[in-house]
Amino acid sequence: xxxxxxxxxxxxxxxxxxxxxxxxxxxxxxxxxxxxxxxxxxxxxxxxxxxxxxxxxxxxxxxxxxxxxxxxxxxxxxxxxxxxxxxxxxxxxxxxxxxxxxxxxxxxxx
Length: 110
Fold this sequence. Notes:
Number of helices: 5
Number of strands: 0
Oligomer: single chain
Structural class: mainly alpha
Largest sheet: none
Distance between the termini: 29 Å
Strand content: under 5%
């Protein structure tokens, strides 16, 4: 039996999978956990989140978890990239955050 790694983005994506499954009565929790675990592994093993400081990385991981449960994850993530550029809020490096979102779309093959 394999164990799931912990820490970002695994913990956040597990919580997102659980929330997505709870919000949809027809969702299969184990399937959601598997999909989000695979997404977390792909992102962890890629360079998509490299270069972000801890604050911005946490913001991106949290947002990706929510966006991956959207009806159209690619569109949701691309919209979030644009929002990071247009309305950065408390992001430390909005350009790097926007790039991380767009790279994530490619890494996850959305």
